[in-house]
Amino acid sequence: MERIFEYELKEKDLPATINGLVGQVIKKCIKLKAHEWCHAKYTENGVTVTSSNGEVRSVYANERMSVGEILTVHLTDPPRSKNGHRVEAVKGELEILYEDEDLLIVNKTAGMPVHPCYGHYNDTLSNIVAYHYESRGIELIYRSIGRLDIETSGAVMFAKNKAAAGRLFHQRELGTSCRTYHAVVEGWVEKDSATLNKPIEQIPNVKLLRQTCEEPNGQNAVTHYRVLKRYTLEDEKVSLIEARIDTGRTHQIRVHMQSIGHPLIGDLLYGNPDKNCGFERALLHAVRFKCRQPFYDDEIEVTAPYPADFVKAISNDLFITPMH
Fold first, then answer.
1. Which pTM does this prediction carry?
2. What does residue 168 show for φ and ψ, rounded to 5 degrees?
3. 149, 267, 274, 309: which is the annotated catalytic residue?
4. Which residue of 51, 81, 101, 314 shows the fewest CB atoms closer than 10 Å?
5. Are 231 and 317 in contact (CB under 8 A)?
6. Beta strands in the chain (DSSP E)
7. pLDDT of 265-307, one tens digit each?
8. What is the pLDDT averaged over residues 9-22?
9. Helix, strand, coil: what percent of the chain each, to 5?
10. Catalytic residue list contains 149
């Protein structure tokens, strides 16, 4: 997918750009890093300057431009090879929470994988995203920024170009982008808030399941939670919690909450079947997503509405009781 940047050189830019050096204008004014636009240098008309009379010329980084001229940089993803990964476009409903020229945030339904996997080749969120663009004549090389388990509903972000993906992944590493989850768990969680810092490992000889373990085994995993309310659901004590994770381990919130005796309601892997209150999926929803626009640095925050089963699970609160 192509991303186009334009910038008109101003008199005040000359000192910082060494009198209009193209490479410096790209770095200081458009704020692209060298690795982000290097492919454009080798693309026909990838970097051009338009003069005041409308004449367009291709330029190199070591050339200069004049005040009033417009520099244009075309960023394009490399074409897919014949054997490259391609997702089949499949028509389906897509609940868009936010979209601009660099990213897309959608509300994923529970039971839908983000990417094609064994047993799910054309019924995933990526299939529907591919259709969303291909039906409009846009070829998309999809890049999801942080996945969700198949059972988990809520906000998922896709980068629409390679440069944006790199910047958004970097935000994840720095912690400037984050996702907030809501979950309904068994029992009344005693502490109003806490941080669970417990490594997670695969259960030996069981590929799907994870468990907490002692250091130095497993992968580092940190979950922060706070209790929003404690109530009863189908005569069972439950708590609605809000959680954030510093790490993205498989089943992290589910495993951490189970480790303190409060597995998620409906969790058929880590919960108690006799306390599922009629729900058949772990009640975990990515309710908010916050990040910075990768090129303009504006703050973006979206809220993903609860699905019907989550609404049902939290609307039957007969009473709320503080623990302290």
1. 0.88
2. -70, -35
3. 149
4. 81
5. yes
6. 3-8, 47-50, 56-58, 70-75, 96-99, 103-108, 143-144, 153-159, 178-186, 193-197, 200-202, 210-212, 222-233, 236-245, 284-292, 299-303
7. 999 999 999 999 999 999 999 999 999 999 998 999 999 999 9
8. 96
9. 20, 30, 50
10. yes
